[in-house]
Sequence to fold (243 residues):
Amino acid sequence: GDKYLSSAKLDHIGDKNTSTQITTAPGSNSGLKVIGYQKGNENTINQNITSGYTEYFEAKQIGTKNTATQTGSGSTADGTIYQQGDGNTATQKLSGMNNGYYRTGMLIKQIGGRNTASQEFWGSGYNPGHSGETYQYGSDNVATQTGSGHHFTSIVTQNGDFNTATVNQNGTANPVLFDNSVELYQDLSNNTATITQELGSTNIIKLYQKGAGTANLTQKGDQNVVKGLTTISAFNASWAKFG
Fold:
């Protein structure tokens, strides 16, 4: 059966629509799902769950000038935002302070130009599997991912010119949070990548830039690795800053 015991869904087809869903789930309540779908221009979706666990957010917008905001405060949460068009903004904030044995996952997919995506995750436990993924197709896009935890994976893919991606992963030295990883792929040229991994151990950065791009990398901790995925014969990591 469906693990979500409570569901809410809003569908809009047309222009200038606004959808707001707020669900209150005191501590031990679980199985909450909110879904918003809009087709048209100048749409806004705001979805909010204050606590609980096993939460699912989904927002789908097709058109221009859309804004989707999803916030969750419980563990074991998933959020997905899909936008197609220009001038869109997507924001997700999920926290997994209890973490459990289930992943907390975020996905933003934007097709078009001048999109902005921002994702945050904060977790303190040791259980693995948290992830944040952003896919942007077009030019002049901005992607930001910030998170902390254990076995936290951030993936950013940008296909276009003049895109900017910033990924921050925050660990701790005591107790050591480790095995965090970043994979950042930027196609075409004039893109900028900034990746920071604070503290922790055995963290990995995989960077692929095709064209004339700029990369700023910072790692602090032990036994960290930088891998350059590039079409040239040699990868020069001399510009990377290691704490």
Summary: Confidence is low (pLDDT under 50) at residues 231-235, 239-243. The first strand starts at residue 6 and ends at 13.
